[in-house]
Amino acid sequence: MRLDRIGVDESVAAVFPPERLVERLADAADEAGVDVAAVDGSPASLADCDAVVTFEHRDAFLDLEWVHSVQAGVDRFPQDRLRERGVVLTNSTGIHGDAVGETVAGFVLALARRIHEYAANQADREWDRPEWDEAWTVAGERACVVGLGGLGRGIVDRLTGLGLDVDGVRRTPVPEPGVGRVYTTDRLREAVSDARFVVLAVPLTDATRGLVGADELAAMDEDAYLVNVARGGVVDQPALVAALRDGEIAGAALDVFETEPLPADSPLWGLDDVIVSPHCAAYTRDYYRRVGTIVAESVRRVADGDEPVNRVV
Predict the structure, then answer these.
(1) Listing from the earlier edge strand, what are the strands of the sheet with 35-39?
(2) pLDDT below 50 — which residues of the chain?
(3) Cα–Cα distance, 122 to 40 (Å, whole number)
(4) pLDDT at 201 (0 to 100)
(5) What pLDDT is stored for residue 289 in this prediction?
(6) 64 in any annotated domain
(7) Active site residues
(8) Cβ within 8 Å of residue 230, ≥6 positions away
(9) Strand 51-54 and strand 142-146: pairing?
């Protein structure tokens, strides 16, 4: 792969200012003899680029040599088309574990300690304490983390730190530090059956689309909560709404949805014990620094004739 110029697409403004990443990459690019510039994704702006760092896919990227996603998930990108055109696709897996792990810990604590209710009451100037048996502590409770990759690892570390017993689900039953029992995906219903929190942290693929549906929700305890920081498509959303309305599960904390932004008429907005957040679990002011570190390492590797980090295609 030859690199003369890398574009930072304006779509990354969804998570950080493009110019911050341009500045972050300047030193590594200079050492490798590569130019870095902000681009708007148009064919004209990409005319001299060999690579792009982006939040979303654009068809103009099919004429480049390398596309780097600032997210861990690559479901936004047409992998087959990129492969056919010989375009290398890499992602930012491994940099989001801290932020997502802390977000999940926040969800878990909010639901147990009823913090989301107090925040809602504040907007209405209501002084309303919970019933004596509504709030509880998480130490000694069980969580099941579905997906033990980079995101799952960050979640496991935070939840074990809070005193929860954590089990996990992955494709192969390879032991994971801090995880008591590791189930394979075909045993998902068994894995979630006695967990107070079921946390989804898998990428969206053909295999994981609709992974959690009516049967999996029915397998959960009535006092269990679903936490989704994966992708909306991993869950059958109508089945989730039905399970929440019917009291099959106690509640949910959802950062991702089938349709984003979540439509104003979605019943999820008004359901009790449901926390809605706008797909921002990975957000941190250091986001651009972490992306910059991984891209800079890839630039160095390419300059040495090696492959970039986290190649997907």
Answers:
(1) 35-39, 5-9, 51-54, 66-69, 88-90
(2) none
(3) 42
(4) 98
(5) 98
(6) yes
(7) 231, 260, 279
(8) 146, 147, 151, 200, 201, 202, 203, 204, 208, 256
(9) unpaired
Q: What is the reported pLDDT for 163?
A: 98
Report the predicted TM-score, pTM, of the whole model to 2 decimal places.
0.96
DSSP 67: E
Q: How far apart are CA 290 and CA 284, in angstroms?
A: 10
What are the C-alpha distances in Å from 212 to residues 42, 91, 200, 216? 38, 25, 9, 5
Q: Does 293 lie in the same domain as 149? A: no
Q: Which among 74, 54, 77, 313 has a CA at the least distance from the CA of 208?
A: 74
In terms of residues, how long is the chain?
313
Sequence-distant (6+) residues with CB within 8 A of 244 are 251, 252, 268, 271, 273, 274
Residue 197 φ/ψ, nearest 5 degrees: -130, 130
Please name the residues in contact with 106: beta carbons below 8 A apart, sequence gap of 6 or more. none
Q: Check whether residue 148 and residue 272 sit in a common domain.
A: yes
Instruction: Return d(Cα 253, Cα 276) in angstroms, integer.
Output: 6
Name the domain count of the chain: 2
The enclosing H or E element of 245 equals helix 237-245
Of 163, 117, 113, 124, residue with least CA distance to 143: 163
pLDDT at 184: 98
Instruction: Indicate whether 121 and 146 sit together in one domain.
Output: yes
